[in-house]
């Protein structure tokens, strides 16, 4: 029976149209996963040296044990954002004469086969061999690594339960933020040292097998928790979450002033806040506003005069991230109802214009929200303004034009992280001109004259693009219209 | 009203639609029947310029549909869910359409009042997205949307499918009423021979992309179709 299920799973992924079409993307992703895991392993091997040399720690083991809790908080976060829920698969099995428990055991088990499971063994395994083994003996090393791995794997089941129960609710977001604050706040504010609280547990595992047994109990308990929750909620109505319509009912009323394009921009706004995937993209744009804090405050990037060239990149990211991310999949967002726009007079023009309008609005908001960065120097504000103009005038048109190269359909209700639906080669290659373009204008002027001239050049290039908005946007509209049959027939296919 | 000349649709070497000539005059109720895969939906899609014709063209009031867009004012259609904005509630969807068709709020009210019976109190004023509606209610929303903006042509693909028997009758009455009062041209494809012969003045039977019967006499419609389908 289980074999049969496994066979069905394999067939499903082999035969899905997106697999055949984007086999290259799949290979690329697999390659990426292997590379990332290899990096994790490499980091694991040199972890001892990193702790001793970079952090100048006398006792690598003590430092690591003290920091483990932060690692697990971090793991909680990345698991929250990347881990996929297996329930979506359940629908097609529920009506069959297979017991629910069996299905759920299978789905839970399958979710465990993931690169995330390997991160902790790869990261801390080598450390156990190089540091714990020589100092505390082989039994201690095995016991220590076992309890660390079991902690991580317990988080896997905990997260399956947590995400299913709280996903998309305010409660869930609240808890995630609380975890973030717990990690960040404890040491900075000096209230308590979180690391010291949990350290004895791992120290204890060096001398006693009890912590391993306890963690094993927790591991099994968490699995039971997830299993029981899924088991008792294995009904179709529970799988599809009821959204609270009140939260997502806001309109951007002022957009209506821009005619039909404005109306469509308004519809697009509703599309964004009512689907999981675009909502995450919008949230990311919010998070990326904080991106500057990493760079602008870092003394490593301080220069004698002027500013670091890298800041241009940071600036264009902060003011344009939504456009870059959302724009990548320009038409795929409307894949479920593209015929609606085709069937309306001037519908496609208005759709494309509405999207432009939305990009401009969000970018302006990002620019305004980033004004406080002026605290770190007026240069930064100048960079942001120049980058904003450049984004509006040049990058926006590039994103749209490139994204119209074979758009693919996608399901907007799946999560955004590691969801490569709708992503084709174009979306991967696109990022290159996006990163190069600002520098292609900025660098020559900055190196020959001065950095500020470089910024002015960027702004002027952007202005030129803004002035030429009409013909440039017509180009994109024309491209959609010329390819309308191909686009709409590919959107009508099953994903 | 609709003039089809030398229309051909080919996927690689298979011809899925081949209509040398077909004319649909104004205010006719045109029924399209045929087995699965006969090309009914493809024909509708080509008329709406959603699919490219391999050869030939479709003209609506002398306008080639693949060249211009003005005809879109005159044509309302509901083929499948791709034509709905499923992330809106029905009220929001009609409101969005109202703005697109530049109607006044009273126009919209009048329009929806005509569908009151068909909606049966289950569509409007409910806090439910279109994507969460049942298949029958989805269809009702689509049909009401297709008839918005006083179109001269309304195209419906399988309008009776998924509707309950009383809704099917209400829809029939609605179509007859529109045809009588506003001279609307209806293009309806259906597998339900009784309904389609009831409301349509003319039935065209498609088989593997070819028009094999074009019946304009009400009296013989039912018998001819029953003979073909073996029912």
UniProtKB/TrEMBL annotation, chain A:
Keyword Transmembrane helix included in the entry's annotation: yes
Whether Heme counts among this entry's keywords is no
Pfam family, any one: DUF5687
Q: Which residues cross the membrane?
A: 21-48, 60-82, 103-129, 141-162, 169-190, 210-230, 280-298, 310-335, 356-375, 381-402, 423-442, 448-469
InterPro entries in the record: DUF5687
**Keywords per UniProt:** Membrane, Transmembrane, Transmembrane helix
Please identify the protein, giving its name as recorded.
Uncharacterized protein
Automatic annotation (TrEMBL), chain B:
Q: Which GO terms describe its molecular function?
A: ATP binding; ATP hydrolysis activity
Top-rank taxon of the source lineage equals Bacteria
Domain named ABC transporter is located at 2-230
Which InterPro entries does its entry note?
AAA+_ATPase, ABC_transporter-like_ATP-bd, ABC_transporter-like_CS, ABC_Transporter_VariousFunc
Keywords on this record? ATP-binding, Nucleotide-binding, Transport
One matching Pfam family, short form? Answer: ABC_tran
Q: What is this protein called?
A: ABC transporter ATP-binding protein
Which organism does this sequence originate in? Arthrospiribacter ruber
């Amino acid at each position: 029976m289980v074999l049969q299920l496994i066979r069905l799973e394999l067939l499903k992924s082999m035969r899905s149209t997106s697999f055949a079409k984007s086999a290259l993307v799949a290979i690329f992703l697999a390659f990426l996963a292997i590379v990332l895991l290899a990096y994790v392993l490499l980091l694991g091997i040199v972890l001892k040296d990193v702790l001793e040399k970079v952090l100048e720690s006398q006792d690598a083991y003590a430092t690591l044990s003290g920091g483990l809790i932060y690692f697990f908080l971090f793991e909680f976060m990345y698991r929250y954002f990347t881990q996929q829920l297996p329930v979506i698969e359940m629908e097609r099995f529920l009506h069959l004469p297979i017991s629910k428990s069996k299905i759920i055991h299978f789905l839970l088990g399958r979710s465990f086969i993931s690169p995330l499971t390997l991160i902790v063994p790869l990261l801390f395994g080598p450390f156990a061999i190089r540091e714990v083994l020589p100092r505390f003996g082989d039994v201690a090393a095995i016991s220590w690594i076992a309890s660390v791995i079991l902690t991580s794997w317990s988080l896997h089941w905990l997260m399956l339960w947590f995400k299913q129960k709280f996903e998309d609710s305010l409660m869930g977001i609240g808890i995630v933020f609380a975890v973030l604050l717990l990690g960040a706040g404890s040491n900075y504010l000096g209230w308590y040292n979180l690391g010291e609280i949990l350290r004895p547990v791992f120290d204890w595992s060096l001398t006693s097998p009890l912590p391993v047994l306890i963690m094993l109990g927790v591991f099994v308990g968490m699995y039971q928790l997830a299993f029981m929750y899924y088991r008792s909620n294995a009904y179709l109505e529970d799988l599809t979450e009821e959204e609270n319509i009140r939260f997502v009912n806001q309109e951007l009323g002022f957009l209506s002033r821009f005619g039909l394009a404005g109306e469509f921009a308004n519809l697009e706004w509703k599309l964004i806040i009512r689907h999981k995937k675009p909502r995450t993209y919008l949230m990311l744009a919010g998070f990326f506003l904080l991106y500057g804090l990493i760079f602008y405050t870092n003394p490593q990037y301080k220069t004698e005069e002027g500013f670091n060239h890298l800041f241009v990149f940071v600036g264009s990211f902060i003011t344009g991230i939504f456009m870059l991310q959302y724009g990548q999949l320009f038409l795929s967002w409307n894949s479920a109802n593209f015929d609606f726009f085709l069937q309306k007079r001037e519908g496609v023009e208005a759709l494309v214009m509405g999207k432009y309008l939305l990009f401009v609005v969000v970018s302006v908001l990002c620019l305004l929200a980033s004004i406080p960065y002026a605290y770190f120097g007026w240069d930064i504000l100048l960079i942001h303004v120049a980058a904003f103009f450049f984004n509006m005038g040049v990058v926006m048109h590039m994103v749209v034009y490139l994204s119209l190269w074979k758009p693919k359909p996608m399901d907007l209700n799946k999560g955004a992280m590691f969801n490569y639906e709708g992503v084709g080669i174009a979306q991967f290659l696109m990022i290159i001109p996006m990163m190069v373009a600002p520098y292609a204008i900025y660098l020559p002027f900055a190196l020959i004259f001065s950095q500020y001239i470089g910024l002015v050049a960027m702004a002027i290039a952007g202005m030129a693009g803004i002035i030429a908005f009409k013909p440039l946007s017509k180009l994109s509209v024309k491209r959609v219209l010329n390819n309308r049959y191909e686009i709409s027939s590919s959107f009508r296919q099953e994903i | 009203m609709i003039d089809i000349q030398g229309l051909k649709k080919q996927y690689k070497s298979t011809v899925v639609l081949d209509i040398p000539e077909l004319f649909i005059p104004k205010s006719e109720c045109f029924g399209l029947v045929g087995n699965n895969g006969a090309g009914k939906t493809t024909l509708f899609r080509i008329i709406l310029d959603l699919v490219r014709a391999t050869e030939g063209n479709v003209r609506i009031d002398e306008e080639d549909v693949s060249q211009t867009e003005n005809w879109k004012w005159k044509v309302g259609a509901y083929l499948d869910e791709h034509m709905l904005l499923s992330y809106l509630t029905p009220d929001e969807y009609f409101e969005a359409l109202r703005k697109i068709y530049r109607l006044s709020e009273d126009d919209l009210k009048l329009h929806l009042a005509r569908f009151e019976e068909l909606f049966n109190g289950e569509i409007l004023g409910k806090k439910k997205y279109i994507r969460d509606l049942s298949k029958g209610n989805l269809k009702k929303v689509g049909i009401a949307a297709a008839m918005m903006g006083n179109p001269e042509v309304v195209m419906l693909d399988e309008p009776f499918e998924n509707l309950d028997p009383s809704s099917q009758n209400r829809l029939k009455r609605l179509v007859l009423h529109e045809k009588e009062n506003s001279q609307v041209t209806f293009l309806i494809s259906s597998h339900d021979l009784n309904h389609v012969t009831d409301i349509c003045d003319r039935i065209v039977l498609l088989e593997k992309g070819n028009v094999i019967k074009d019946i304009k006499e009400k009296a013989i419609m039912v018998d001819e179709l029953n003979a073909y389908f073996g029912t």
